[in-house]
Amino acid sequence: MSEFFQRFARNRAAVLGIGILAVIIVVALAAPLLFGADPFKLQGKPMVPPLTGGFLFGTDMLGRDVAAGVAYGARTTLLIGVIATTVAVTLGLLVGGVCGFFGGKLDVLLMRVTELFQTIPSFLFAIVIVAILGPTITNVIVAIALVTWPPVARLTRGEFMSMCNREFVHACVCAGVQDWKIILRHILPNCAPAIIVTASLMVANAVLIESSLSFLGLSDPNVMTWGLMIGAGRVALRAAWWVCAIPGIAILLTALAINLAGDGLNDSLNPRLKNA
Amino acid sequence: MSTKTLLEVDNLSVTLPAGGDREFAVTDLSCTLCPNEILCVVGESGSGKSVFARSIMGLLPVPRLRVSGGSIRFDGQDLVNVAPSEMRRIRGNKISMIFQEPMTALNPLIRVGKQMEEVLCVHASMGREERRSLITGRLQRVGITDPERLLRSYPHELSGGQRQRAMIAMALLLEPRILVADEPTTALDVTTQAKILRLIKDIQASSHMAVIFITHDFGVVAELADRVAVMQQGRLVEIGNAKDVLEHPSHPYTRSLMEAVPRMKFRGPRTSFDKAPAVLSAQALCKAYRASRRSQPVHALKDVSLRIRRGEAVGVVGESGSGKSTLARSIARLVDVDAGQILLGDTDLLRLEREPLREIRSKLQMVFQDPFASLDPRCKVGFTVAEGLLAHGETEENAMRRTDELLSLVGLGPDAKHRFPHEFSGGQRQRIAIARALALGPELLIADEPVSALDVSMQAQVLKLLADIKERLHFSMLFITHDLRVASQVCDYICVMRNGEIVEHGQTQDVFADPRHEYTRELLSAVPGLAHELSAAEQTCMARIGIARSPSTSEG
């Protein structure tokens, strides 16, 4: 385990990613302490530029503190990203695991369903789901999870299939070990690196989908998100660029940080790159 | 002297990266190579013999491995400090190399002909026609009957033997002064190996080139070598004329290596199991594989029947693709057969539902070929051994106690249970795998090439362990191997398989001393070094086979 941390620490980009992510998480957690309980509260004159009038990131067209919005937006965005990914990974693991381990007709059926999901353009599909179910946080999570699980299922299926042909799994079958024990104790831990890495990159993807949805107004209007801020600020882009730009940079940094950390995880969990 | 030696290696040292198991891959190695001789370099895995071969070719993975001292002089030119461009001129031209795995040594995306031509484009100025005719000539010389077809083929369309022949032809294109061969026959079947060895010897004799032949097999050495160099842990421990080294090895390591080489046993105590009850009987097993729905099925098992009696060790021998592994896996119910019957005692294994099958599996355990793949890298050894016991409802306390006993039984000691597989050597891992297989007290142990991934000294130890334990616990064994020498030592009864069929079977002594089937004779005559290790009586016996081997009409 310590070897894992050493290898991770040697990758400077990954450490940078983790650093940025840590800052974002701390700001998100400390938002009520830093900016008061309500990010929608009017704090001063509208359209104050950054670093003037006591506002770090300035104010928007209604006089709301952009910094408060960014901090509160980070809470929602990260929360949605993590929960949606968890749901998607769980679903993908179940479907992919069943397909990969048991194979046969069930595999064919489930894979066709997976392909059905993959053929629909994912962002359009997410829009349709939220439009039908209504714009609430839960529905956004459901929509993101529904459009992102198929790649996890395919990956898990592939990994399970190759694991099932490994001799140590054959040895367990010969020893009469129950299927669920083989899956939980032998196959899953050996597939874990690939799945963890994919999941970490999916969080970044979920953040982007969530921001895009709330930019289009398809998110809970009573919850502050980065996409919502950009969507609202877009009309005054030329007069108050910072209202759009700052949450935009926040999205960029978050997605970048998660990607860097994910790549770092990949390198340090992959034993073949051990000495590279 | 200096006019006669072609290659002079002087105090060569190659450093390993920090954190390796030793400082140097090769330490202070000195030797010479004369034109027109075959030098065999022998050693176990990790002895540095491949690193030595690669440093001659300038193919070390710099900077992880690099020559840190000494010199390699080829024709007066120092190969260690030569400029890369000059080395490129020598490589493939004056010194060429053939590798162990002909599949990975050829580019899978380029036709063989094109790859061979590349050598000529780099090193010689020839017209297209000239190149073609040279290549065709070389291919014919290595025994390829239709060179045109081979040149148009992609590597995957050729058999292992054909690929290796193509590699040899490619290495010989420019009539090199030295041919470096790094275990070129290890990945091949015995009959193919015998042909390739003969080919290398013939070509060497007719073209007077020098050959450095890396191998781990003393049988191959006996067939081929003029001189032998033995390496251990990166050091050259013994070098001398083949006859001297093979007959009077001076270094204890050489002696221990040679003693570990499995000997062909033609005669031995004949144990009859005719009266013992059958533990397993398989009848008319059939299994066909199809690459796709339209392609011709490949028959891995064609109507195979087999009986194993209590306490008996039945060997299945054959070359790769003969279906012997499929047979083992079918009996272990890892592969579903298309038709047939497998009776374990009175129970038909093929008719069992999931749960009863899971329960009966304890009577039938398997040891796999590759001890690196057959143990879960993420589970501690103790858990791996105990897992089967726990799955069959044993209490944790009993399972752990039994695990301690088993680990002691296979000679590792109970402390091993707290460690992970990667902390053990190949031989030790195979012991763990055997402990796991014995945990449930099986009636039948299926061993699928259990020693072919191990070095000879490990091989001997593991075989001895298996024999000891079998003596003590009285289980039956189905032993799959491609190595007739191993089979002759372990098995009471032999089945020879080819193309999914058992072509000959009988008591081990009968089959090997008086093979009836053409294919068995072919396999026997291909065993490397056999002629060198036989007693007079066995020589006569071989002679009989030899006579029968010449174009015979009497098929057994």
Describe the structure.
The complex is a heterodimer of chains A (276) and B (556). With 276 residues, chain A is an all-alpha fold. Chain A has a single domain (2-38, 60-273), classed as MetI-like (MetI-like fold, Orthogonal Bundle). Chain A is built from ten helices and no strands. Chain A has helices at 2-10, 12-35, 66-102, 104-119, 122-133, 137-164, 167-174, 179-215, 226-233, 241-269. In chain A, helix 2 (12-35) packs across helix 3 and helix 7 (167-174) packs across helix 8. The longest helix of chain A is centred in the first third of the chain and has 37 residues, at 66-102. Chain A is elongated. Chain B folds into two domains: 7-255, P-loop containing nucleotide triphosphate hydrolases (Rossmann fold, 3-Layer(aba) Sandwich), CATH 3.40.50.300; 278-549, P-loop containing nucleotide triphosphate hydrolases (Rossmann fold, 3-Layer(aba) Sandwich), CATH 3.40.50. In chain B, 39% of the residues lie in helices and 23% in strands. Chain B has a six-stranded mixed sheet with strand order 6-7-8-3-9-10, with helices on both faces. Chain B has a six-stranded mixed sheet with strand order 16-17-18-13-19-20, sandwiched between helices. In chain B, helix 7 (160-172) packs parallel to helix 8 (190-207) and helix 8 (190-207) packs across helix 20. The longest helix of chain B is centred in the middle third of the chain and has 18 residues, at 190-207. Chain B is globular, with a radius of gyration of 25 Å. The chains are: A mainly alpha (276), B alpha/beta (556). The interface between A and B is medium-sized, with 18 and 30 residues.
